[in-house]
Amino acid sequence: MSNQPIGILGGTFDPIHYGHLRLAEEMLELANLRQIRFIPTGMPPHRDAPQVSAQHRSAMVRLAIADQPAFVLDEREVRQATPCYTVDTLRELRAELGAVQPLCLLMGGDAFLQLHTWHEWEQLFGLAHIVVGYRPGFTIEERIHSAPEKLRQHYQQRLCSVDDLSQQPSGGVVELVIPKLEISATLIRSRVAQNRTIRYLLPNAVANYIHQHHLYIPC
Ligand code: ATP
To answer: What structural domains does the chain harbor?
Structure first.
């Protein structure tokens, strides 16, 4: 059991919502993970700057995961002033957790099909497994054909089962069917901006935090 993998879920979490939490909870169970580290990005290299500060986004993650002991907030990226690449974060985690601890980078199918655009993306496989969640009836196998050949090759050669994740520290790709909730941070931000209810889209504690701190209200 000591080789149970640790999951890593990065995101802007601007704000965290039940889509993220259900994805993590399903992956925890289906991939038999020991723990999931939620790592909010400081300055994401791939997208626009988040609407609220890293401190607020981290605080909301802390509130959202407070009652799930297997979920842990990891603030390493928000402490950094420069853009963070996943590959560097994984290198740090690998150095801290040792060479044999299985690590699983968790992501959705859309993110996996864009993996070739990530900084030093092929190095990721030497550092962690990749666990991809996709919607029922929306397989990666069908869509991988339009991906660049290199990504297709990695996918085909590395595809493995959940049981394999604890046997190696890194290098496998596992697909899990996970129903996707139709919730996004974009939806929540836009509802707050329009003074509409966000109840039941995210934990109450996070909704209260947003209201108390007047987040996502246009100036
Ligand atoms: P935004 O709407 O601002 O783009 P987001 O809601 O997609 O944000 P991110 O913080 O960018 O949230 O996402 C972090 C991770 O969570 C990504 O891997 C993303 O695929 C996944 N994710 C986001 N929303 C959902 C959802 N509803 N169901 C499953 N996974 C999700």
So the answer is: 6-181 (3.40.50.620)
